[in-house]
Design brief:
Helix content: over 70%
Mean pLDDT: 88
Shape: elongated
Distance between the termini: 66 Å
Largest sheet: none
Radius of gyration: 19 Å
Number of helices: 10
Order of helices and strands: HHHHHHHHHH
Number of strands: 0
Length: 208
């Protein structure tokens, strides 16, 4: 194994170790660096070859989630690219929930640390939700559902949705018997937020 691949492997081992530990503890910010390196089978100094501190490691976890979710959404859009009039929202939501089932640890940790003690991790999650929202907003089939809404207001709607869907994904992961009901509830929330944003914008336009 080359030094570059060994370094990458060591970095991933630290990420995986932190996810394993924090998933069972339901807390990322309470982990100790020695605890993580012991779980990863690495020496304590090895941690600092890859990350500045625990929050830096947390941000790396969040970036991996961001890349994976955007890739999953890209697959949905490419598979439906020829269907210009398709309401793609149910497909994107289902793809996200299915991804969460396959990757429960980062979803649970992301939700638990959304209001956690690590500021860098909170900000990283906020930036990731915005990046994912921007990616969704780029699909004209989504923006068409909010006609006339300025992009910044559209982003506000999508960011609120992204945060809510993150928390609902935890329920979807942990309550397999209720997944149909959770998915249907999520779809209703999506519809209400889109309809509400459109109605408020129309009302404000009439007033002006």
């Amino acid at each position: 194994m080359t030094s570059s691949s060994a370094s990458t492997h060591g970095r991933q081992r630290l990420i995986d170790a932190a996810l394993n530990l924090s998933y069972h503890k339901r807390s990322f910010s309470s982990l100790g660096i020695r605890e993580i390196t012991r779980e990863a089978g690495l020496s304590a100094p090895a941690f600092y070859r890859h990350f500045e501190d625990l929050a830096d490691l947390g941000q790396a976890v969040i970036r991996e989630v961001e890349q994976a979710v955007i890739q999953a959404f890209t697959e949905v859009r490419l598979a439906t690219a020829k269907e210009a009039d398709l309401d793609i929202r149910p497909m994107l939501l289902k793809r996200f929930f299915d991804w969460a089932v396959d990757n429960p640890k980062p979803i649970v940790i992301g939700a638990s640390e959304a209001f956690g003690a690590l500021e860098k991790m909170r900000l990283g999650l906020k930036n990731t939700l915005r990046t994912i929202s921007q990616d969704i907003c780029a699909d004209p089939r989504i923006s068409r559902l909010l006609p006339g809404l300025p992009e910044e207001e559209m982003m506000e709607v999508l960011e609120v949705l992204a945060q809510n869907m993150l928390f609902m994904a935890v329920d979807y992961v942990e309550q397999p018997d209720n997944r149909t009901a959770i998915f249907e509830k999520a779809l209703r929330i999506v519809g209400v937020l889109f309809a509400g944003a459109h109605a408020i914008h129309a009302l404000q336009s009439d007033i002006r």
